Amino acid sequence: MLSWALTFFIFSLIAALFGFSGIAATTAGIAQILFYIFLGLFLLSLVTGLARRGDKLIKKDL
């Protein structure tokens, strides 16, 4: 997912370099949306992993 965001970001930089403002804005918007989706999924997996880890620690103490 992060690679797609990075790919669209690079496309937007190249399009901006050549002066295609419409394409640059579109690809930058797509890259931004993909980045936030990736960030949300990362935070979700981080919280889930910490919750599972805490569950195992509680069971060991009992």
Structure characterization notes:
- Helix content is 94%, strand content 0%.
- The chain is rod-shaped.
- The protein is mainly alpha-helical.
- The N and C termini lie far apart (40 Å).
List the helices and strands and how they pair.
Blueprint: H1 2-18, H2 21-61
Q: How would you summarize this macromolecular structure in one to three sentences?
A:
The chain is an all-alpha fold.
Key features?
single chain, mainly alpha, 62 residues
Q: What is the helix content?
A: over 70%
Report the β-strand fraction as a percent range: under 5%
Instruction: Tell me the domain tally.
Output: 1
User: What gap, in angstroms, lies between the N and C termini?
Assistant: 40 Å
